[in-house]
């Protein structure tokens, strides 16, 4: 299980090409989606979390911890955990928190979307943070509340129910998994700021502070965990630092398809799987249209050899086409995105073996053109021959409204 903060940890806001995030996406979908859990743990409210998903090429987590550990939801539909809500209701009164905090002129309320059932959030200048935190803590304790105040990012001050926080939310999940007999073999936590510190305090976890971690987290580490060999300060930024930690701690494969120099002539090995093949092909499509692979007859011939002669592609309109016809279209779009911000990624790759040598693979495929994105869900059938996978069938349905003329291969 990977438990990662989002802003400046999984998501690098200084990386306009989203290179590190896309590296992680490809690695996760090819090597981990089928038997591991991805948890996003963020200070963002559901509103701002969904906004980030529209802005960045993110994959779907199995679990989302939001609003600094005060909300836990499951799956794509984000089903809330009612048991967690009951725990946080103890010794918490949002109205009293707001009443007392409003008496501090140093505190500026954050947007209404950031005020949640078990979290009240403000902005405060760095030089006032400690003084305000100590004074407010005493006042709320005198009012009979049991709260936690977290300062992070050099500006954000969050007042939470005492039982809340990223660390407590993770501890709750681990206890729940253990009760169900589904405790992950290893857990890697990832962060960059003060509100991530609790994650590193959970017994037994591995941890990575990305290279761009803020002073407040590095100071916490120096004071509390500098001799802990299970916590790494990565030399790489954001998601690339997470990939580095997977390799450092030997938790599993850490070679993303985006790290392979020759994506065209990948040799099959014992790790070859339908998931790897789907990720590799979608990346090849991106490199083809960005003219980052050579336009050669050898490549086209190899692609055609990986498609069964009678393979059918079902367009969202319902029309059937022989897939090899689409190879001819694909040849014509070579380099049409050269020098442009064009990226592709896959999400929710699910491969189900339906016979000894055949798999049904379902996944979401996304293409990002600058600010514009198009997505579809694809169901495909792959058959494993001696040395490669052969595409037998593909069926595509739009994930969201797209132009009738838009085409995703």
Automatic annotation (TrEMBL):
Obligatory cofactor(s): Mg(2+)
Pathway(s) this gene product operates in, as recorded in its UniProt entry: Glycan biosynthesis; sucrose biosynthesis; sucrose from D-fructose 6-phosphate and UDP-alpha-D-glucose: step 2/2
Gene3D superfamilies membership: 3.10.450.50, 3.90.1070.10, HAD superfamily/HAD-like
Domain Sucrose phosphatase-like: 1-250
Reactions performed catalytically: sucrose 6(F)-phosphate + H2O = sucrose + phosphate
EC number from the UniProt entry: 3.1.3.24
Annotated family: Belongs to the sucrose phosphatase family.
Subunit and interaction comment: Homodimer.
Name under which the protein is recorded: Sucrose-phosphatase
């Amino acid at each position: 299980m990977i438990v990662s903060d989002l802003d400046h940890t999984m998501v690098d806001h200084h990386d306009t090409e989203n290179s590190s995030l896309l590296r992680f996406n490809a690695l996760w979908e090819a090597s981990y989606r089928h038997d591991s859990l991805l948890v996003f743990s963020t200070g963002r409210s559901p509103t701002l979390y969904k906004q980030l998903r529209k802005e960045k090429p993110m994959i779907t987590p199995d679990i989302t911890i939001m609003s600094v550990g005060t909300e836990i939801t499951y799956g794509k539909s984000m089903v809330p955990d009612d048991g967690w809500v009951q725990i946080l209701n103890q010794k918490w009164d949002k109205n009293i928190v707001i009443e007392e905090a409003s008496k501090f002129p140093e505190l500026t309320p954050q947007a209404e979307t950031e005020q949640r059932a078990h979290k009240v959030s403000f902005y405060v200048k760095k030089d006032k943070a400690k003084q305000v935190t100590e004074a407010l803590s005493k006042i709320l304790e005198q009012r009979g509340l049991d709260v936690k105040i977290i300062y992070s990012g050099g500006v954000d001050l969050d007042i939470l129910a005492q039982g809340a926080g990223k660390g407590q939310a993770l501890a709750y999940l681990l206890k729940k998994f253990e009760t169900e007999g589904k405790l992950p073999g290893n857990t890697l936590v990832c962060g960059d700021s003060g509100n991530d510190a609790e994650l590193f305090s959970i017994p037994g976890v591995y941890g990575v502070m990305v290279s761009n971690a803020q002073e407040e987290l590095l100071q916490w580490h120096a004071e509390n965990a500098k001799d802990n060999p299970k916590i790494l300060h990565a030399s790489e930024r954001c998601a690339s630092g997470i990939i580095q930690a997977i390799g450092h701690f030997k938790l599993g494969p850490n070679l993303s398809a985006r790290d392979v120099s020759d994506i065209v002539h990948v040799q099959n090995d014992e790790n070859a799987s339908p998931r790897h093949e789907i990720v590799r092909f979608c990346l090849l499509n991106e490199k083809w249209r960005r003219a980052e692979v050579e336009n050669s007859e050898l490549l086209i011939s190899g692609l055609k050899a990986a498609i069964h002669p009678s393979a059918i592609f079902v367009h969202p309109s319902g029309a059937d086409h022989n897939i090899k016809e689409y190879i001819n279209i694909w040849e014509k779009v070579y380099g049409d995105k050269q020098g442009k911000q064009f990226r592709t990624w896959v999400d929710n790759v699910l491969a189900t073996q339906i016979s000894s040598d055949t798999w049904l693979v379902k996944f979401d495929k996304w293409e990002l053109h600058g600010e514009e994105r198009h997505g579809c869900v694809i169901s495909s059938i792959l058959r494993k021959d001696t040395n490669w996978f052969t595409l037998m069938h593909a069926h595509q349905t739009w994930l969201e409204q797209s132009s009738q003329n838009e085409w995703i291969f």
